């Protein structure tokens, strides 16, 4: 193999390259930049990431990982959606991983991911400056309308100032039913909606840092998924942390922190339709600044597996605030598995408020607000309230229809 070198792809495009040369090395696309350096081989036809030199030969990119700079993207604040889309398309067509170097790449329209091919995007890290910047207040960042498996790691996707629409990561395509997606150590500031999904299941959210004016993550049918760690910060007056609905069977939420310095409605809101596996909230900190820490309701009279909330610090501040809330609904009778609320630290005027449950347990929780109440609604049956520590003037209000055991629930000052 005979190899030559050019400073940039632009220089190589303008050159007449001897036919004896079969490969070349560049050190950038339009300017020298190590993140855009590439190794190319001669070809008689165009290929992924290729260019044509002045003599008519095609030169095809042979790098094992592809960066936006290989496709002419710049990090000068201008709209780079065309080059960034070419980068995405190359990853889908070749199966090669995509690397987002520590620069800010701006886009004026959403990047599109479709089809069944997998895709991996990995940055240098959220603190190293790997970033996609949205230019419009109403646009999506990346739209996933396919059914491939996706891995997103170690980068930031930022909205334009004061966003009013769109989602930074949007899995709401009509054909989307991706299974097994991993999103890890990704940050978003400040989104309208951080992550939106209508069909993504068995996913992993790992230590995400999301800030949103509307909803940090809106997830439909997230069955068999794991949300672990991370920081979810709703900042709008009517904003929420995690909004979850549909089939949630097998969902586990493990020790995230969901709070904000501004008023918002809820940390976690679940509106369940069906569940074929246990739903677990384990550990973490949840605060509904003017409303509810965790609210779980149903929108259809269907059967559920067990629901467990344990080991968490949960607050629902403001007048009428609730730490944990199962609203009064005839549909709650459809929860045929056991509901367990145990070993939590609860901070609100209404520590726990439940109604419509059959087969449930509120046990060994610490109620830290003076006068905090455990409220049991008239449609509750077959339950147990025991071992809870009630703050000064705390009380249990039992209005249940029958068969509820109230054990020892000591007070403290």
UniProtKB/TrEMBL annotation:
Source domain of life: Bacteria
Protein known as: Right handed beta helix domain-containing protein
Gene3D superfamilies found in the cross-reference section: Single-stranded right-handed beta-helix, Pectin lyase-like
InterPro entries the record matches: Pectin_lyas_fold (IPR012334), Pectin_lyase_fold/virulence (IPR011050)
Protein's organism: Frigoriglobus tundricola
SUPFAM superfamilies according to UniProt: Pectin lyase-like
